[in-house]
Description:
Strand 1 (about 10-20) and strand 2 form a beta hairpin. The protein has 1 helix and 3 strands. The radius of gyration is 19 Å and the shape is elongated. By secondary structure, the protein is α+β, with helices and mostly antiparallel strands. It has a 3-stranded antiparallel sheet, covered by helices on one side.
Amino acid sequence: MNDVPDVEITGTVYKAICETDKQGIVLVAYSRDADGRVGRSWLRFDQAGADYIRRRLDDAAEIKRETAAAAAARAAEVQA
């Protein structure tokens, strides 16, 4: 596989839509470049890519829960 892109798209994503189906995940991202031009990218992740994204999202959710628990513990210590 050649990882050198034939086309490179740059810009800041301001809207993203993510949908799942039996084939994986579809991500539609709307972006705006430095000149104000709007682009739309449609990306399909195969099942392996979808599994990877789900694992990363699960990891992020776990980190968020741990952070909230630690903050609650600190707040309880301050109250004591």
